[in-house]
Amino acid sequence: MSGGPGREPAVEPAVEPEVVLAGEGLRVVRRGQVILDDVALRVRPGERVAVVGPSGSGKTTLLTLLAGVDRPDAGRVTLDGVPLRAPTPRIALVLQGYGLLTLLTAAENVQVALRAAGHAASDAQARSAVALDGLALADRADHLVEELSGGQQQRVAVARALAVAPRVVLADEPTAEQDAEHRELVVEALLGVTAGGAALVVATHDPAIAGRCDRVVEIRHGRVVL
């Protein structure tokens, strides 16, 4: 409504975009070395964020903090505005080391994550099959991890992360072991989670992946420079 003759119309206050995952003032010191220093990152639902920077810049440490796997020396991480104090199925993390259970098959690795997220055994089996098939692993589902190539293991780790339908996916160099064909498959699978409203944060050296994200955050010497 107008404020009357000669008055400017009232200006509605700006509404801050919804944030699903946030790190504020994150600082990590290990053996006297500063790994991260006052790093902040806020991610919205459905957003694709690329974290870039040279090796050793702190990208992996940032992802482990955002996943609740590690705790900062200063600062805090929040999920939907609530402080994050431990890992949760709502945040899926794909590490460079994959984190697979070597005594289990590819399918069993995915099913373990689904059962931990509360899915019944039959549902976990069905979801695992779909997730592995989507990453060209249907014929490797019953193979032990040690029988898989590095690229296949990496895709199992991605399938496990996506199968639980998390609110946020954090991926650390998720295409490092892939050939051209499977690299595109992994990229499409990861980017696809945002269509359903999940957020994606991917640490990568691959400019082709970064170029398909909504935003690029650059870290150097433990600080955000872009």
Care to describe what's here?
By secondary structure, this protein is α/β, with parallel strands linked by helices. The chain has two domains: 17-90 and 166-226, 3-Layer(aba) Sandwich (Rossmann fold), CATH 3.40.50; 102-159, no CATH class. The chain is built from six helices and ten strands. The chain has helices at 59-66, 106-116, 121-134, 150-163, 180-192, 207-210; strands at 21-30, 33-43, 48-52, 74-79, 82-83, 91-94, 168-172, 199-203, 215-220, 223-224. The protein has a six-stranded mixed beta sheet, with helices on both faces. A four-stranded antiparallel beta sheet has the order 2-1-4-5, with helices on one face. A hairpin with a 2-residue loop joins strand 1 and strand 2 (33-43). The longest helix has 14 residues, at 121-134. It starts with 20 loop residues before the first strand and ends with a strand. The model has no long low-confidence stretch (mean pLDDT 92).
Provide keyphrases for this structure.
226 residues, alpha/beta, Rossmann fold, 2 domains, six-stranded mixed β-sheet, four-stranded antiparallel β-sheet, 6 helices, globular
